[in-house]
Amino acid sequence: MDKEKELQQLANRLRELAEKSFQQNIFTFSGFLGLSEQDVLWRLERELNYAGMTLFGGFEQSDRKIVRFGRAEEMGYEVDFPIACIHICPLMKKFAEKLSHRDFLGALMNLGIERSTLGDIQVGESEAYLFCLDSMAEYICENLTQIKHTHVKCMPVEQYQELPREEPEREEIQVSSLRLDGCISKVYNISRSECLELFRTGKIFVDGRLCENNSRNLKGVETINVRGKGKFRLEGEARETRKGKLRIVVAVYR
């Protein structure tokens, strides 16, 4: 299916969920939304805001998120997001391969699972923590038994909010200004022309919103996602050097 048609169908689905929540006074939930899909939501923000919107993906820095429609303060009750966490680990660690995010995702997709049922996958050397819709957890635990040549077991994690999170690498870089394209070029050590191509092809997202303005300034409260490379955010205030440059610290998630 054409990508534009898929996004239009998603927009219609979000409208339906918002209307159902408002009319029936219940919480409604989308599936997991990737960055391009979250951008569809933000483009509809004014239209759908009447229903109340909250995004969550299982932990604070998640990339893939579910949107919940409904206002708890008006309904008088709260409903948790339908998210489960599964620990995927090798049956015999000493014989396990080093597995990548692509390996885990590929094995899951081979089970015939829709992408919208899967959230972030936090990958270690040969293990991972998978966030998914709670309706899929039992099926995944029963059917995901092998990734590449490594036999694995899957175990639900009850208190996934307390899992250790990947710590970003903090790097100090020097830039001419806080322009987004210049900061991205420095963080990922790419040329300005390569950076502009990322903007042109729709691979730069600021707090889940597609960003096409390469000259906008970076703000410390924002998370910048660069598809295919990772994400980062500004840490603290910029310091001016004697030569008029800016020295900044960025927290980089590879």
Q: What do we call the CATH homologous superfamily of the largest domain?
A: RNA-binding S4 domain
H/E element order: HEHHEEHEHEEHEEEHHEEEEE
Number of helices: 8
Strand tally: 14
Gyration radius from CA atoms, angstroms: 20 Å
Provide the number of structural domains: 3
Unreliable spans are none
What composes the largest sheet? 6 strands, antiparallel
Indicate the mean pLDDT.
93
CATH topology of the largest domain: Structural Genomics Hypothetical 15.5 Kd Protein In mrcA-pckA Intergenic Region, Chain A
Look at the helices and sheets and give the structural class. Answer: alpha+beta
Distance between the termini: 31 Å
Give the name of the CATH architecture of the largest domain. Roll
Q: What percentage of residues falls in helices of 4 or more residues?
A: 25-40%
How large a portion of the residues is in β-strands, by DSSP E? Answer: 25-35%
* Spatial ordering of strands, largest sheet: 9-14-13-12-10-11
Shape: globular
What is the top-level CATH class of the largest domain?
Answer: Alpha Beta
Structure commentary:
- The protein is built from eight helices and 14 strands.
- With 254 residues, the protein is of the alpha+beta class.
- The chain has three domains: 3-75, Ribosomal Protein S8, Chain: A, domain 1 (2-Layer Sandwich); 83-162, 2-Layer Sandwich (Alpha-Beta Plaits), CATH 3.30.70; 169-253, Structural Genomics Hypothetical 15.5 Kd Protein In mrcA-pckA Intergenic Region, Chain A (Roll).
- The strands form three sheets. A six-stranded antiparallel beta sheet has the order 9-14-13-12-10-11. The protein has a five-stranded antiparallel beta sheet with strand order 5-6-4-8-7.
- The radius of gyration is 20 Å and the shape is globular.
- The model has no long low-confidence stretch (mean pLDDT 93).
